[in-house]
Amino acid sequence: MLTAEQSSSYRWVMAGIAGLLMTTSFISLTSFGILSTAMASSFHVSSEELTVLGVDSFSIGLFAAFFLGQGGVFSTRLKTGVLVAQAFLIVPQFLIPLSYNLVFLIIFRFVQGLMIMMLALFSIQLEGWFASNERAKALAFTLGAISLGSAAGGLLGAVLKSFGWQQSYHITGIIMLVGAVVYFVFAKDAPSQKKEFVREGEKGHQSAWGNPMTWIMGVIQIPIAWTLFSIGGYLSTYSHYLGYSIAQSGSLVIAWGVSGFAAAFVGAILGDRLSRKAATNRGILRARLKVMTLADVMMAIGIILMMTIGHVSFYALMFAAVINGFLMMFPPNYWALPGNIFPLAMVSAGAFGMGLISNSADAIGPLVTSSIIVDVGWTGVFLIMLGLSLLGIILNVLLGRSGIKIYEGEPR
Predict the structure, then answer these.
(1) What single string gives the DSSP state of each residue in 131-188?
(2) Model confidence over 74-93: pLDDT tens digits?
(3) pLDDT of residue 326
(4) 26: domain range?
(5) Is residue 406 part of a domain?
């Protein structure tokens, strides 16, 4: 039975403004890589070293973010959680141009990475506004915005370079601030959901770490997370390595980001359509796993093409990046599942637990990538991504066929 919020047309306003906020937030992912060449002289290091330190510290923050939601601290205060995440992002954006100290840069980039906690927060918040058979479409706005924001960062980074990197940081910071203001003016937590969380919370907090699905779901997103943030941080670097210009590298990042944004909606529509035919939570899980497996396949094909034809021409590399961008079919279906696999009292802890495990790849992936680029070369980088893609496909198939216990109540 649908709640009043799940029947309200305002639910699409919620999806849209959440997507806007994620778009403005993820400008910081790729704009840093584009601006790093100009920033390097101010910090008295090479652009390569600055890129590695900035991307790696940001990525470690992406992992650490999911510690912050343990214990269900934001279960009934979702907008407060988003406010905290935005403070982590926006305040350092204005502080970085004020100091040319490399240690401060690393700290500020780490703090900015903590904003990724919004993934779990929006997964929970939009669950209160959308029924299970249209939840992925709602999340496509927010998760596709990771790629769209990355594309915007690539575009803005290239356009604003003429202003100087300090001014570019201030301008992108203002854009992030505008996105945050729009969200906090219009966003609402679903009252029905909040009442349920309060009622369940009175029974005592339930830890998700004893539930096998927390661990399984965390692991199956590692291949996507590893590739997404490694490609997002180093795609322009790979383009430079192949000899393409800064302008071409910016266009490449934009193409990859736009394809990911489109793919998020394609995956969401497929997943919701398949879920609509399922009468049980297990049926919904299996339906979404089919789309998640297809996303892993597209990711693997894109990686193979980058390795084999990326050097042939810039447009061949762009085609490979667009195919790889379809890995974004995975996240909307993945983050639509907590309400179907965990009991209500465990949804918040389960979502943050899934994110903590899967986002360990955010910390490890770029670190390993930056190390392998120097010691082994790009072939080693892509072979690891390809191996993880195949692992993801296998794990998805095994989970779909398993009878492991999940939430057995009515689909929410």
Answers:
(1) -TTTHHHHHHHHHHHHHHHHHHHHHHHHHHGGG-HHHHHHHHHHHHHHHHHHHHHH--
(2) 767 888 899 999 999 999 99
(3) 95
(4) 4-401
(5) no
